[in-house]
Amino acid sequence: MDRRQRKTRDAIFNAFSRLLSKKNYNQISVQEIIDEANVGRTTFYAHFETKDFLLKSLCEELFDHIIDTAMGMPHSHSRLTCGLEADSVFLHLLRHLQENDLNILALLSSENNEIFLRYFKSNLKKLIVSQYAEKGRLKKSNLPEDYLVNHISSSFVEAVSWWITRKMKETPEQITEYFLATVDMLAL
Amino acid sequence: MDRRQRKTRDAIFNAFSRLLSKKNYNQISVQEIIDEANVGRTTFYAHFETKDFLLKSLCEELFDHIIDTAMGMPHSHSRLTCGLEADSVFLHLLRHLQENDLNILALLSSENNEIFLRYFKSNLKKLIVSQYAEKGRLKKSNLPEDYLVNHISSSFVEAVSWWITRKMKETPEQITEYFLATVDMLAL
DNA sequence: TTAATACAAAACAAACTGTTCGGTTTTATT
DNA sequence: AATAAAACCGAACAGTTTGTTTTGTATTAA
Questions:
Q1: CB count in 10 Å sphere of residue B38
Q2: pLDDT tens readout for residues B51-86
Q3: Are residues A33 and A96 in the same domain?
């Protein structure tokens, strides 16, 4: 990828993150973004069709980043599903979040966390299906697998959200413990 | 309240709901709302400061409506906390949702459900605190009460969301069963 | 060096926002 | 029934945002 492209792309992402840490997504205009990023109007629209696409791209990029660094498998989180113990996956994710990536925290803090967390959750579902469901590690219950996977994903995302909004006072291990305490009779 | 006020207020609410069932909240403009509601521009802003306030008002109104009709306690859901069995509260809520109030479904279906559900959830938390926590009916655990209440509320809201997005194929009783299966070892 | 590509700056029409003004209809009061 | 208050409408407004186009410059890869 052209050095120039990567440069403006990053400039836009960073500007966007900075703005997200100050105000709501809805209240941010493209104008503000290009001002903050010091980038031409034309350039912005050459990179991102709309503000929504920018957000989506940022989420994708951050999710890939989280997964890659948390798992130590650069450039291929499609291999996520291979040979990792379940709780260590969750623990790794939490540990990585604790390392305070500026961009990630901007997306997770305050009003905007739902945007990223929705994206996060949908990817988490896939992960859980491949990690648990396909390998028959969900405890048998009367619940539809669909429902169960959604419940577990939500519970984890909610745990993360709860943790972040309260300034991450607990350790990742503690949060993992909380999380498992609510779902470990359903799956492990 | 002046009949005229109630009338335009309803017209705006209904128009807004109709639009919400078609497109995203973000993509709806005030212009569209007042066109759909057949209401003057000035009138809209006399009623609602911004689009966000309109949304908030609609959520409040619908939540009150759900609570009132589900509990049969018109005009006072502050007395919600008196003498109702816990699971019947959930069941009542689900039964009421099944009666297909147009406005509520508009807020719950598709892309927009998070908006109302966040509001729903925060009220649910209060309800759970007063129903369970204050009466010592949360099973003892290592979890902070805060965390537990959030988990239970989220689980219910997620259950509702799951139910609705899949066209409410199950009965309210069935969903209550699913919900309780995931949390009844934590509280009852 | 050359040709492609990424960028900037400015201008553009179209739409949206929130407010103001003058005038009309409805409601509650007497 | 008469009147005053309140709610409404329509039009116009300045300001902002959006997404596109155009013209020209700088950077990159070949």
A1: 10
A2: 999 999 999 998 888 877 766 644 344 444 444 466
A3: no
* Residue A173: φ, ψ to 5°: -65, -40
Which pLDDT band holds residue A185 (cuts at 50, 70, 90)?
A: confident
Residues B82 and B27 in one domain: no
Whether the CB-CB separation of A14 and A37 falls below 8 Å is answered with: yes
Q: How far apart are CA B28 and CA B107, in angstroms?
A: 14
- d(CA A36, nearest CA chain B) in Å: 23
Task: Work out the pLDDT band at A17, boundaries 50, 70, 90.
Answer: very high
CA B75 to each of CA B5, B70, B86, B121, B155: distance values in angstroms, whole numbers, following the listed order: 19, 12, 21, 20, 28
Q: Give the C-alpha separation, A5 to A88, whole Å.
A: 36
Asked if B112 and B65 sit in the same domain, the reply is yes
Same domain, yes or no, for A120 and A42? no
Domain annotation covers residue B26 = yes
Cβ distance A150 to B143 less than 8 Å, yes or no, reads no
- DSSP label of B143: S
Within this chain, do residues B72 and B24 fall inside the same structural domain, yes or no?
no
Supply the range of the domain harboring residue A23: 1-48
User: B183: which chain A residues are within 8 Å (Cβ-Cβ)?
Assistant: 182
Nearest to B178 among A114, A143, A159 (CB): A143
**Boundary-marking domain end, from A31, A48, A65:** A48
